[in-house]
Design a protein that fits this description.
It is a single chain. The strands form nine sheets. Strands 15, 16, 18, 19, 22 and 23 form a six-stranded antiparallel beta sheet that branches. Strands 24, 26, 29, 31, 34 and 36 form a six-stranded antiparallel beta sheet that branches. A five-stranded mixed beta sheet has the order 3-2-4-8-7. It has three domains: 240 residues, Collagenase (Catalytic Domain) (3-Layer(aba) Sandwich); 110 residues, Immunoglobulins (Immunoglobulin-like), CATH 2.60.40; 144 residues, Sandwich (Jelly Rolls). The longest helix is centred in the first third of the chain and has 23 residues. By secondary structure, it is an alpha+beta fold.
């Protein structure tokens, strides 16, 4: 039974709405042909064909020679990965589309050899940028523009002791890219060998993964090549659903980088590609051979967005119009913790009018979560729904019995016009324009009150009432690591304070490193609230509350969707300081928030 939570009179649900209990096979059979009916005609009208290759580089420090048989070993591995992608795309119904490799007359792959500038000791895990730059001259001489191609750099940064059978690596091992370009950094070792993938013996001791078979070692590191290649092609992380796990194994872009080929040893089902990622790759220029509109910027508009609970989860419905056209919409249901590795995807193909319905099932129980949407375009591009470079994310909760609470998502959807009006310093819509239950909600009223006063002068602490939001008070000084000081709405993003799967009335924006100082004059007794990272940001931060230089509270390191509450005694405190640090790993994406901090006398 469907329960309508947000009424959208113009929304017409597709026949997909009858699939609320569909399994993986039904989803594939229903979505793939319709997606190809969008991709095919667009690419065939004034077609532009082109062969996009994956370019391979073998980089070695100045004081090391390449590992033995690197060309033979890596050629066999990449061909196997090509077969893996082709097999998965065929299973999904797209035909054997796959990566394209630069094969030479001897049957092996062209691998560009690059000698590093410095000895091994000068490089480490974070040296990816330096190593990439050292590859530039060699690729340029080969006529390859590294910024317009997809490349994979194998780094000779492992340490193998054949007598002790121990191995460790100190190599860059990550990737990023899109349909036009990408870079993946990998590590090579003498025992990275496709012929060893099925072997239970010998055992080796890896510095990170412990005492494992040489076959397991190759599952991890050949699977890692396939996984990081996915990132270089533009694929994000995602997890498999329980039905998919039973049928196919482990999603490659989740933990499938560790299960690749384990089926050869009888240790599991191996790795697979999820349907949403197959839908994205179906239009990737390297996979389909079409470069039509490859460099065109993908744009889309989303309207009529609605959410509803169902017996087994919830649905997200709306209308998308894109340029180039959108052939798939993917929703990622991302529970708190484990970054985005445990995000379960759901996909839908828009109808002729752009309308779609996503069925979000197999949700993690007893968890705060968020969902976000991504559009796949027929030129291979993808675009996220959001603004200012931020992905629009919606919070929800699932209880221990699997019941979904979408109230926070409904709030965020319904309050979007209020946020826009506050940002533009225009009068807010009337409260009674909201659905009746939301208009009567205490949190909604509090948020609307904050938005009504957005941008107004703040009150001196000495003149404030007995209970006051800290964001309403004037600070002595404030600084943030990026974006400037902001209260109650995020800096540079027209969005409410959402963190940890919850929506908050407001607070202090505190991108690390941040420091907010207040003169309290010893007149306040308590400070209560929460601290966390803004929804959609994946940094790591630490929060501290200081009173007259003495630490009163310390959050420890927080990341992902985790929040921590605080309740601090301020008796006799004259100077209050709220600090946000980068937790020691740099400030990238460190969107710290002080959430609903409230002072009381």
């Amino acid at each position: 039974m469907f329960v309508r939570l947000l009424s959208v009179s113009s929304l017409v649900c597709l026949s997909l709405s009858s699939w609320s209990h569909a399994g993986p096979a039904e989803d594939i059979a229903g979505q793939v042909p319709r997606a190809m009916e969008i991709i095919g005609p667009w690419q065939q009208e004034s077609p532009v064909r082109g062969k996009r290759l994956l370019h391979l580089i073998y980089w070695t420090p100045a004081d090391r020679e390449p590992n033995p048989r690197y060309r033979e070993r890596l050629s066999a591995i990449l061909k196997d990965i090509r077969s893996f992608y082709a097999g998965e795309m065929k299973r999904l119904g797209f035909g054997p589309r796959s990566i394209q490799l630069d094969e030479m007359d001897d049957g092996m792959l062209r691998i560009h050899l690059v000698k590093g500038t410095h000895p091994y000791a000068r490089y480490h895990v974070q040296s990816g940028g330096d190593i990439r730059n050292e590859c530039l001259p060699v690729l340029k001489d080969a006529g390859i523009d590294i910024d317009r191609e997809t490349i994979m750099i194998f780094c000779n940064m492992s340490n193998w002791d054949a007598d002790k059978k121990t191995i460790s690596q100190n190599s860059p091992y990550y990737a990023g890219g899109d349909h036009q370009r990408g870079t993946a950094w990998q590590v090579d070792s003498p025992i990275l060998d496709l012929d060893l993938l099925a072997k239970h013996e010998p055992k080796v001791r890896d510095g990170q993964y412990g005492h494992i078979s040489v076959g397991r070692y190759n599952s991890i590191f050949i699977g890692g090549i396939a996984h990081e290649l996915g990132h270089a092609l533009g694929l994000p992380h995602n997890c498999e659903s329980p039905p998919e796990r039973e049928l196919f194994g482990t999603a490659l872009m989740g933990s499938g980088n560790r299960t690749y080929g384990e089926n050869l040893r009888g240790e599991g089902k191996g790795s697979f590609l999820t349907l949403p990622h197959g839908l994205r790759l179906a239009a990737h220029p390297m996979f389909c051979g079409s470069v039509k509109g490859m460099t065109s910027r993908a744009r889309q508009t989303l309207s009529d967005l609605a959410v509803e609970t169902t017996e087994d989860g919830f649905t997200v419905s709306g209308r998308v119009v894109g340029s180039p056209p959108v052939h798939a919409v993917t929703g990622y249901m991302d529970p708190e913790g484990n970054s985005d590795y445990n995000a379960v995807p759901s996909s839908a193909v828009p109808g002729p009018d752009g309308r779609f319905t996503l069925h979000c099932r197999n949700l993690k129980k007893n968890a705060r979560s968020e969902f976000y949407l991504v559009a796949s375009h027929v030129n291979g591009a993808s675009s996220s729904f959001g603004s200012g470079g931020a992905i629009l994310r919606f919070p929800y909760q699932v209880d221990a019995g699997g019941k979904v609470d979408l109230r926070a998502s409904r709030m965020k959807l319904a309050l979007a016009p209020f946020v826009r009006a506050a940002r533009m310093k225009q009068p807010l819509p009337a409260l009674d324009s909201l659905p009746a239950d939301l208009a009567a909600d205490a949190m909604v009223k509090q948020i609307v009150g904050r938005l009504a006063g957005f941008g107004s002068a703040r009150t001196a602490p000495a003149d404030a009432p007995a209970t006051a939001p800290l964001s309403s008070l004037a600070w002595k000084s404030a600084r943030t690591g990026w974006g400037g000081s902001a209260v109650d709405l995020l800096a540079s993003e027209p969005d409410l304070f959402v963190a940890g799967g919850r929506i908050f009335a407001g607070g202090l924006y505190a991108h690390a490193p941040a420091r907010h100082e207040y003169e309290l004059g010893g007149a306040w007794k308590r400070l209560r609230g929460s601290a966390g990272i803004a929804s959609g940001h994946a940094g790591t931060v630490g929060f501290r509350i200081l009173g007259d230089g003495r630490e009163l509270w310390n959050s420890g390191t927080l990341k992902d969707q985790l929040c921590k509450d605080f309740d601090v005694d301020l008796t006799g405190v004259n100077e209050l300081v709220l600090e946000t640090s980068d937790a020691g790993d740099g400030i990238r994406d460190d969107w710290g928030l002080w959430l609903d901090p409230v002072l009381s006398r």
